[in-house]
Amino acid sequence: MKINHLLFIIPSLFTSNAIAAHCNVNFNYGVVIDPAHLRIIKHGQTLVQINHEKQLFIRGREIQLSPEQQKVIIEYAQGIRTQVPEIVAIAIEGIDLGLKAVNKIIGGLTGENSAAHQKIQEKFSEMQERLRLRFNQSDQNFYIAPQDFDDFDEIIAGDLETEIQEIVSDSIGTILNAVGDAMTTSDNDDIEQRVKAITERIEKIGENIEIDIEKPTDKLNSKTIKFCQNLIQLDKKETQMQKSIPQLRQYDLIRTTAESTVNHKKTD
């Protein structure tokens, strides 16, 4: 592996190249979850609220439910409560995978306790915290904005895109500086040996990174596929709920495309 190959790996770790699986499912509204409530919101306004999986409110008005309607509401609410944290888990796991790999590259070239390595680690910690705050994740509290799940790199990066680009640029610069420092010598006769040594180190790091990220990436792709399949099933449950409770028909949270499922397309 040459240095240009190693430099190519870094940006790709933070894009959908790392998550190959795609999901042709959308959330048309934002979703807020806490232990007692599930809210479907638009521009900060609550459109639909389900309390304790028992009470249904539409624009603040309680809808009286029959036992059969309540059963459908319970199943739907439980499905949302299961899948929204899964979205957060996939997003955090995706960014962590990239961060850990870049961290290992920098540590391998500059040393585990070097100033450059410590600087990158500090930035990683800050970004991980911002990512969690982006989803308002606290205990059992989650927030997901309207999303197109076919674009997982956007879900993962979102408002952090600028910071990710900065870390990528700094990481590449650090690698190039480390290579330059390793090749610098006052002994001209030793330059060939140093070039060989740094080349071998880069090749070894690159090989290790590819091995290290292969299984976690495959696992993350499997999670994404399963998540998408679960959302498709939950979309069908939503359709069933809308048929049972006509007042909910205009609030279509989950939307699947023709590529996701056959003969399952909802209209406004």
Explain this structure to me?
The protein contains six helices and nine strands. The chain has one domain (3-248). The model is unreliable at 259-268 (pLDDT under 50). Helices cover 59% and strands 13% of the residues. It has 268 residues and is an alpha+beta fold.
Key words describing this protein structure:
13% strand; single chain; alpha+beta; 268 residues; 3-stranded antiparallel β-sheet; 9 strands
Assess the beta-strand content as a share of residues. Answer: 5-15%
Give the beta-strand count: 9
Q: Whole-number average pLDDT?
A: 78
- Neighbour order of strands in the largest sheet: 6-5-4-3-2-7
Structural category: alpha+beta
Compute the separation of the termini in Å. Answer: 52 Å
As residue ranges, the low-confidence spans are: 259-268
Helix content: 55-70%
Number of domains: 1
Overall radius of gyration: 24 Å
Task: Write down the secondary-structure element order.
Answer: HEEEEEEHHEEHHHE
Largest sheet: 6 strands, antiparallel
Quick structural overview:
The chain is an alpha+beta fold. The protein contains 6 helices and 9 strands, in the order αββββββααββαααβ.
